[in-house]
Design a protein that fits this description.
Chain lengths: 268, 508
Amino acid sequence: MNALPLLSVERLTMRFGGLMAVDDVSFAAETGHITAIIGPNGAGKTTLFNCLTGFYAPTSGLMRLAHDGGEFLLERMEGFRIAARAKVARTFQNIRLFRGMSVLENLIVAQHNRLMRASGYTLAGLIGLGVYRDAERQAVERARYWLEQVGLTALADLDAGGLPYGDQRLLEIARAMCTEPRLLCLDEPAAGLNARESAGLNALLTFIRNTHRIGVLLIEHDMSVVMSISDRIVVLDYGRKIAEGAPEAVRRDPAVIRAYLGEEEGAP
Amino acid sequence: MAGARGGGTDRMSALLREAAMTGLLVFGLAVALVGVRIQDGAALTPLLFRFDDAFTAAAAAAMGRLGVALLREGRAAPVLAGGTAVALAVALAQFFFPAHPLMLALLFDTAMPNWLITAFAGFLALSAGWRLRRARAAQGAGVPLEAILSNRDAAMDRIGAEVQRVARYAGPLILLLALALPLMPFADRRLIDVAILVVTYIMLGWGLNIVVGLAGLLDLGYVAFYAVGAYAYALLAQYSGLSFWICLPFAGIMAAFAGLLLGFPVLRLRGDYLAIVTLGFGEMIRIILLNWYQFTGGPNGLSGVPRPSFFGLPFTASPPEGGHSFHTFVSLFWPLDFSPNHRVVFLYYVILAMAMITNLFTLRIRRLPIGRAWEALREDEIACRSLGINPTNTKLTAFAIGAGFAGFAGSFFAARQGFVSPESFSFIESAVILAIVVLGGMGSQIGVVLAAVLLIGLPEFFRDLHQYRMVAFGAAMVAIMLWRPAGLLAHREPTMRLKVPAARGGGT
């Protein structure tokens, strides 16, 4: 490993007209760590994610991703290239599955770029070369592996849109993992899950961190998830970073308590 | 259903009132539209009164409405009886005494509306019968009838799934039938001509299915690429004198290029907006063809487009100097007289082969990454981007490939007609092709075949019904949109399965 952290965000600012959605935020995320980003509603967490994954072009600031000796400046890359080259995968707050396609197909589509190369950009696949068939078999194996991890193997051939809500969330994470990311960005994965499903999610995220050694960036409101699995927490409020540190330290931080519970005086 | 029985006579009189109102309304409309007609060139009475027909229309409407209302109330038995009686009576009367004075007074003077009444009454009786049977089954199973009725969509999807399952075996059978069609004893020139037309539209439907059904890009200007293909062949043949088989790939590439050209500006558009722009593009192409008369011949079109030859052997009665035509060449091995049908049959096989290539290509590409990416793009473009799929390239390939097939079909069209003019490429053609795709069930290959036969084949065959042809066309469209909004055979089979034993019981 080199000295650079996996992701370093420097002075990131995103302005929508007069609204500073993200205001001069800097932080770093390490490989093999779960970094949680928390904050009250409207704190700019999802905007930060959208900047990281190329859906928004930030007003100013730097986002550097470093892995395998390569460096990617995310603010200069198109959205789909961030996913394809810089290997950043994400899930969405409001689940975005390919609802009309089967669970398995969702996971195969996630491996599009590798399969595209193997199919010779369709030409070799069209005439049915063995290279493509092997690649497809591997893709199915990878999909099967992730289906087992999230416990959806038995539902693999059903339409993704027909799954129960909790399973859809898990499938979205599995789909993101099928792109073999170095950084996984999860936007409120525990939203709408019951206590049992939430515990399962904890186990899954811990597994991803420990076994696959990738960086996980996690937006979450559910403090039981955040406090029990994150290695580091970044707290945003009104677009600004107000605290950063280990879970215990953040929990006791007066600025964090003020942001969540409020005080007599309104913050500037 | 049980609650509706409460006030028996009250409900009944309400139903009768409803039916009477409908009858009155129809009479009001019909008395002006049907009841009075201006006669051309009649010296004595310029006006022809047909009030009896207005009464007939009103009575038919009232009875129909009563039947529908009774069905709604769950009283199927009287509808079954009444519907059957009316259907039989009208059918028999029309069949045996079409000119009896009583018949003329009671029913319409022309046959078609009477047959429509028969059909509708029969349909009401059938649906009443279906309901009765269901009710009996429901009683037996102890399931409320409403639950079964609300399951109709699921049942329709099961029908779609069933048809697709059968299609795997029926498909080759249909292909065999299609191959054998010109050899059938009943196959006359007209039948083959209609078949060529139908297969052309099937090919166009399959091509558009790539764009609309798979990639989910609503394209209302598809006929533009058909036109580009047709003119590309006509002009290439005119200026370069190359044969059909050499021009065909060029025409396809040209159309695919036009697809790219359209694709670039509309990359960011979806749904209605995309539909409007593609509609405009389709009209632009047509108007360019119309106005660029130095090149395209303008409204006169291009005539004398060379016909495709059979590996260089023309289909002519007299062979060219020092060469052979098809029949003289075949006669070297097998005695064969010249017949103008040879060319028609040959054209039929050409378009059948081209359509089958389109079909196989689509079936294959659906299972390739690009095909899955198209479908994923249709489902959710943002999710696609988050997975590293390049939406620009993916959309452009869909446009280009879809357009390419239209180009092939277009050059076939030009070769078959021997003449192209902008008139053949009006918006209505785009609409019909889109209707074939949508009615067949988006993404369903066999659905396109069915819809093309229904929408192109039947109207061509029933040309004798002249003005009622388009009425039936419209009625069929409305009926399908009401009962089967997702298309006749809309059911999507996953492109691959994990084949987990447990998944069998996982539900449907």
